[in-house]
Amino acid sequence: MTTTLSLVILCALMALMLASKTERAVQIPCHTGEYTKDGECCNECPPGEGVVKKCGATQTVCSQCLDSETYSEDYSHTEQCKPCTECTGLMRMETPCTDSNDAICVCNYNYFFSTMSGTCEPCTVCPVGQGVYIHCDHDHDTVCEECVDSTYSDRESSLDPCLPCTICEEETEVQDAACTPVSDSICRNPLLPPYFSTTPDMDPTLPFTDYPLPDSPDSPDSPLPGGETTTSSAGSPRFLGHGLNENLIPIYCSILAAVVVGLVAYIVFKRWNSCKQNKQAANNRAATNNQMVTPEGEKLHSDSGISVDSQSLHEQQQQQQQQQQQAQAEVQAQPSHSHTPEQIEVRVDSGSQPDSAPPEV
User: Fold this and answer.
1) Taking 80 as the threshold, does the pLDDT of residue 10 lie above it?
2) How many domains is the chain built from?
3) Residue 118 placed within a domain
4) Residue spans with biased composition (Basic and acidic residues) (predicted)?
5) Among the three residues 164, 185, 210, which one is the final residue of a domain in this structure?
6) More confident residue, 282 or 202
7) Among 82, 105, 128, where does a domain finish?
């Protein structure tokens, strides 16, 4: 009875487990719609990874994409890593390629992508009398507008907008020319000399030397209080202060070059002088080592005794031995003369003194 009851309970538990698995299978749908042979839903590779082995007998196998070389943007159980797009020609890279996003290429600067031609085309340049309303970008062309309401544009440009016209000061200036869409207004101060103009149309590139000097007796030019020079000519008046500054630039460059050359020459001279001194010192040391120094013994006679150094004493001993040998040779060579030992010792001690007659006994 107990055994039968245990089998019933075990069967009930198994039925509950099977029912739970079936319920979970129904509640969790398979997004890929494909299953392995074991009935498992095939996994998807996330962005940044591509499929190496597709789902079938076994589960899907994914691999990491190489940054800046391959990419994968979407979840997939079938797609592999794709190669990154390369920007060539008139295209430039706006966003680099990563493992999960492809590179984004746009048109180069001063070009825009035309949807009609499907290529990059140069940006439109606004003509004189028109200014830039919207600047050109990689996805749209320049938008120009007419210069109105006291604005003007006196040059062609794809960057500059319409500029506001100059307003003459009512108390000190008069207007010689009104502002137009293609030119600015011209103002003049009647209190200034006629050859001076306050118009912004000044050419700073005119050379200073093309005009007579202010101190010339025949020249109508004169310096202004600020030290700036002006001139009157047949054409439009010009301001010469900028030309003078530009002429000073070559002078500054020449002075700087002279300083650099002098510094280099000084360094070269110091190095040459140092090498010369080192060479002379080496020659002096060599000459000192090669010089033969002959030491001389000093013999000092006094009431207290004799003082000599070791080298001189050694030489004196050698000299005495030579003198003794010489005296013995002379004695042997002259047997007729009789010399006592005292006389020989006196001869040896006397050194180079001549022989004296023996004393009488």
Assistant:
1) no
2) 3
3) yes
4) 339-348
5) 164
6) 282
7) 105
**Closest among 185, 183, 212 to 198, alpha carbons compared:** 185
Distance in angstroms (rounded) separating the CA atoms of residues 190 and 170? 12
The tokens describing 26, both together, are: 């129904």
Q: What's the CATH code of the domain at 135?
A: 2.10.50.10
Say how many CA atoms lie within 13 Å of 252 toward its Cβ. Answer: 6
Helix (H) or strand (E) holding 239: strand 238-239
- CB neighbour class for 240 (10 Å; exposed up to 12, middle 13-18, buried from 19): buried
Instruction: Answer for the pair 168, 156: CB distance below 8 angstroms, yes or no.
Output: no
**Short-list 70, 39, 78, CA closest to 57:** 39
Which position has the token pair 């869409």? 181
At 114 the pLDDT is 93
Q: Which amino acid is at 231?
A: T
**Residue 223 to residues 5, 89, 216, 219, 229, Cα–Cα distance (Å):** 127, 57, 12, 12, 5
Q: Which residue has the tokens 């606004």?
A: 126
In the structure, what pLDDT confidence band is assigned to residue 163 with cuts at 50, 70 and 90? very high
Q: Which two tokens stand for residue 219?
A: 């020249």
**Do 101 and 113 fall into the same domain?**
no
Q: What are the residues facing 131 on neighbouring strands?
A: 145
Q: Where are the beta strands (DSSP E) in 140-227?
A: 143-146, 151-152, 163-164, 174-177, 186-188
| Backbone angles phi and psi of 231, in degrees to 5 | -150, 160
User: Is the pTM of the predicted complex or chain greater than 0.85?
Assistant: no
Is 270 among the domain residues? no
Six-digit token pair at 261?
Answer: 């050359």
d(CA 94, CA 32): 34
For 196, residues 6+ apart whose C-beta sits below 8 A from its C-beta are 189, 224, 230, 237
Quickly list DSSP for 61-119.
EEEEPPTTTEE--S-BSSPPPEEPP---TTEEEEE---SSS--EEEEPTTEEE-TTTSS
Query: CB-based contacts of 176: which residues, under 8 Å, 6+ apart?
Result: 186, 187, 188
Domain enclosing residue 124, as ranges: 106-164
The verdict on residue 100 lying in a domain is yes
